[in-house]
Amino acid sequence: MTTFASGTDTLTRDALTVLQPGFLGTTAPDWLLRRLGEGLASVGLFGRNIAGPQQLAALTAQLRAERDDVLVAIDEEGGDVTRLEVRTGSSFPGNHALGAVDDVELTREVAFELGRRLAACGANLNWAPSADVNSNPSNPVIGVRSFGAAPDLVARHTAAYVTGLQSAGVAACTKHFPGHGDTAVDSHHALPRIDAGPEVLSDRELAPFRAAIAAGSRAVMTAHILVPTLDPDRPATLSRPILADLLRGDLGYDGLIVTDGMEMQAIAGTYGIERGSVLALAAGADAICVGGGLADDETVRRLRDALITAVRTGELPEERLADAAERVRALARWTASAGRALPDSAGSDIGLRAARRALRLTGAEHFTPLTEPPYVAALTPMANFAVGDETPWGVAVELSRLLPGTETGTFTDEDTARTALRAAGPRRIVAVVRDEHRHPWMAAALDTLLAARPDTIVVEMGLPQATPRGALHLATHGAARVCGRAAAEIIAGV
């Protein structure tokens, strides 16, 4: 049963209610449980908090023993960005694979099954789907997290994803408003900018968000991006013209507005998290996400006190904070009414079936499946912050299961292609690449491999922009574990 510590006044409770902090460890620390008793209403989970389904269910039960209506949020996109399966790779392909198939019913089924698994573990708010139109193929942070580069395709699959996820009782948080697809900078590191005009923004960036709102998305996450056409001075997360006037007013959105992580450098490096949080609430945001990089009680205290001080000095109207807190509680009430025990789904293998359908093969008409274990050369770029480097990817594990004796090596620059050739010896080479078009060293290394060994098989697990090449070229449209399995099945002929 929810209880509040005696002496916790309304202003303090509201200031805590709008925060979505993270923490370290696989059990809830004492400070977090105490804050839940004082009014904290949301907790964010990351890969560091998850060891497995049973542990996660025990953790969320621990949180609900302190506050039964707590919102347990998680960044579980499936595909490359997974927290439930951070140490093994996802059982679901990501958005780009689903967009490549372009079957909205399949997208809905995948999202439902993902939502069912989240609900079974006690998570009830998912910071997904990404509704960004990946119009810039060199985008360093979106890429395969997007359904694609066509606004109408992204819109229909965003709506299907929202519908599927929420039918499992898990609130969708559609991101990153007003659209992060046409950026060349990762907002984890700096402030990106989109210079498109109003008509392009309306037709391209906003189309998926209109679809998400029409589908009933319970939450929308802001982007830390500057869009001068909409607001020349402040990034979207801190912009009243973008959040209050555009999202609330023009688009008619009435759900919860959640910020992207306030510790990201686009905000923390320019405004600071305290000042940024005050400005975000004043602009129209309702929940402050913080915890990906800052995950301690001191962060919660600093933000709570910054909001209280802003109200007392008149910088943040008290009614604006109260309205934001009420929107958080309203979402908590929705999750309580929508949540229900769902049986194990007959579509539990839907992720693998979707990954198989997403494969695109070039050269298959002349390809004979392998019968001997190959050498897998994984040409590995640095992972972006959203994906992280904890989650394994590639085809080696799945090929080892199908062709015992498969060996692998990881390579990170052009010169190591020669090392890969020596390590492979007479074995057939399978070269695995990720976003080759964004990494000149990777393209050069692949050139070296193919010149020496034209029978090399190429598996492209990122955004497939480069010209297909190799004896067989497989585009998986993502690096989820099931994408690797689907590719391995083709290579081994099973």
In short:
With 494 residues, the protein is α/β, with parallel strands linked by helices. The chain has helices spanning 10-17, 30-38, 53-66, 95-101, 104-121, 151-167, 198-205, 207-214, 240-250, 265-268, 273-283, 297-312, 318-338, 350-358, 396-402, 416-424, 440-452, 481-492; strands at 19-20, 42-45, 71-74, 125-126, 171-177, 219-222, 256-258, 288-289, 360-362, 375-379, 407-411, 429-433, 457-460, 472-475.
Structure description:
By secondary structure, this protein is α/β, with parallel strands linked by helices. The protein is built from 18 helices and 14 strands. It has helices at 10-17, 30-38, 53-66, 95-101, 104-121, 151-167, 198-205, 207-214, 240-250, 265-268, 273-283, 297-312, 318-338, 350-358, 396-402, 416-424, 440-452, 481-492, and strands at 19-20, 42-45, 71-74, 125-126, 171-177, 219-222, 256-258, 288-289, 360-362, 375-379, 407-411, 429-433, 457-460, 472-475. Strands 2-3-4-5-6-7 form a 6-stranded parallel β-sheet, with helices on both faces. A 6-stranded mixed β-sheet has the order 9-14-13-12-10-11, covered by helices on one side. Helix 15 (396-402) links the parallel strand 10 (375-379) and strand 11 (407-411). 58% of the residues are buried.
Strand residue content: 5-15%
Number of strands: 14
Q: How are the strands ordered across the major sheet?
A: 2-3-4-5-6-7
- Evaluate the radius of gyration: 23 Å
For the largest beta-sheet, the strand count, sense and barrel status come to:
6 strands, parallel
Task: Give the rounded overall mean pLDDT.
Answer: 92
- Contiguous low-pLDDT stretches (5 residues minimum) are 3-7
**Alpha-carbon distance between the termini?**
53 Å
Q: Which of globular, elongated, flat, extended, rod-shaped describes the shape?
A: globular
Helix content: 40-55%
Query: Helix- and strand-based class?
Result: alpha/beta
> What is the count of DSSP helices, taking H or I runs of 4+ residues?
18
